[in-house]
Amino acid sequence: MKDVTAVSSTQPDKYLLNTPFGSHRLRRWPLIDNDALQAWDASDELILIELAEQHSDKLRQLEAMGQRILIVNDAFGALSTCLNQYGRCSWGDSKISQLAAKYNNNNQTDNAIVDNHLQQKNNLTFVNSMSLPDHNYEFVLIKIPKTSALLEQQLLAIRNLVNKDCIIIAAGMSKHIHSSTMKLFTQCLGPTSSSRATKKARLIFCEPLSNQKEKSTIPPRIFNYYCQEISNELISYANGFSKNNLDLGARILIDAFKKNEHPRSQYLLDLGCGNGVLGIAAAKTIIHKNNSEMTVDFIDESFMAVAASRENFNRAIGDTAQCNARFYVEDGLDNSDNQYDWIVCNPPFHRGNTIETNTAKKMFSQSFRHLNSKGQLWIVGNSHLHYERALQHVFSNHKVLFKNHRFAVICATKTD
Ligand code: SAM
Question: Taking 50 as the threshold, does the pLDDT of residue 110 lie above it?
Fold first, then answer.
């Protein structure tokens, strides 16, 4: 996709980030016309200023030593793009972050480093959260994630990847950095201190005590609960949604599966699947009623979510029924050619720390395109978000299957 936002000569370019490493035009992903939100925050800027002011000599040596910078949880690729003169490994749980980083790194022209030779040599690699980056980092830059369990898992893994002289700098908005965050760094890595707040953001400095050669690999942390609604235990990984109990919205949607007539479904999709509970519950409903052959797909933009869905599907349904499953880490249905009879969805209404309904609305439009004739999308959402209006707009019909002061379950049918 091409960035077609016009830059007026009189107005400042709101997507341009000026840093000691050059000026870079950065966009959030997916691209939205006139996106009011920036692809970076003040904590990205603090990291870049700190690197330039305190570590320029060590940065200069990086290339000669054939070493790289490990960048963790780079939401829209701001850090990896601004540091594109160095070798970088970007590690995180989000496919959307990877897509944003690829877009922003490929989209640099003015003011950015354009020395092809340098760029080719100092490439950008991605490692997803279900794998570990390899060793050999002189710098580790960490954006503090929303979930402390994810941060803990990442810090424990980093302990095994670095030597004592590695520079570890973390950053986040001050409101997301608590004394427990500092404690976690100290416990997992070593002595930790923080900067004063600047533009409501802070840096965390950490001196790793350990030496990578002494350590072994730590398995990913697993969370679980027994889900009465599907009579199975469900697992989640550290960044999972509702890891310790069934989300209330999901419970209400599953209840609606049992109380209402669902469409005849050979192809079922759990869109934004989290740990896969909705897809598993819907598949069980179909198997229970029809016992016919079917395929259920699970899509999420989180690598940990899709890994948990796979594990949960195998445990709850596995080979015991005539039910195939496919698993995709994707930005919704963006890269899909599949068609469905029934799509079930408990859409996200956060992006990182920002509340937004654009992703949900995009999922509704994608669902319309990927439903067979007479296929249905069933969603649950907070009542105050009034998703019935968005569904009516896309499908020209909707039916409220359940509504109370907190949640609404709505079904929309693709008519000819
Ligand atoms: N279906 C699960 C449930 O009901 O417990 C999870 C629902 S949670 C409200 C929304 C899920 O959508 C999260 O797992 C999130 O990672 C996923 N998500 C957010 N944006 C997405 C996108 N663009 N494409 C695919 N999944 C996305």
Answer: no
The finding on whether 279 has its CB within 6 A of some atom of ligand 1 is no
User: In this structure, what DSSP letter does residue 218 have?
Assistant: P
Residue 343, ligand 1, Cβ within 6 A: no
Q: Do 200 and 241 sit in the same domain of this protein?
A: no
pLDDT of 210: 67
pLDDT value of position 120: 47
Q: Please, which residues have CB within 8 angstroms of residue 26's CB and are 6 or more apart in sequence? A: 15, 16, 17, 38, 39, 40, 76, 77, 78, 81, 104
Q: Is the pLDDT of residue 67 over 90?
A: no
Q: Are residues 163 and 269 in the same domain?
A: no
User: Has residue 238 been placed in a domain?
Assistant: yes
Tell me how far apart the terminal alpha carbons of the chain are, to the nearest angstrom. Answer: 30
Residue nearest to atom 19 of ligand 1 (CA): 348
Q: How far is CA 225 from CA 211, 220, 222, 273, 411, in A?
A: 36, 17, 10, 17, 28
For residue 281, give the CATH number of its domain.
Answer: 3.40.50.150
Q: Which of 237, 351, 359, 382 to mutate to test the pocket of ligand 1 (most atoms within 8 A of CB)?
A: 359
For 135-184, write each residue's pLDDT tens digit: 779 999 999 999 999 999 999 999 989 999 999 999 999 999 999 999 99
pTM exceeds 0.90 for this model? yes
Q: Examine the fold and report which residue of 155, 171, 206 is the final residue of a domain before the chain moves on.
A: 206
The closest of 267, 255, 239 to 348, measured between CA atoms, is: 239
Atom of ligand 1 nearest to the CA of 246: 5
Do 199 and 244 lie in a common domain?
no
Ligand 1 site, residue 331, Cβ cutoff 6 A: yes
CA–centroid distance, residue 384 to ligand 1 (Å): 19
In this structure, the answer to whether residues 202 and 233 fall within a common structural domain is: no
Same-domain pairing of 80 and 176: yes
Domain range spanning residue 313? 222-413
- Residue 41 CA to ligand 1 center (angstroms) comes to 23
Q: Whose CA is nearest to atom 9 of ligand 1?
A: 348
Per residue in 292-347, pLDDT (tens digit) is 789 999 999 999 999 999 999 999 998 776 899 999 999 999 999 999 999 999 99
Q: Are residues 198 and 266 in the same domain?
A: no
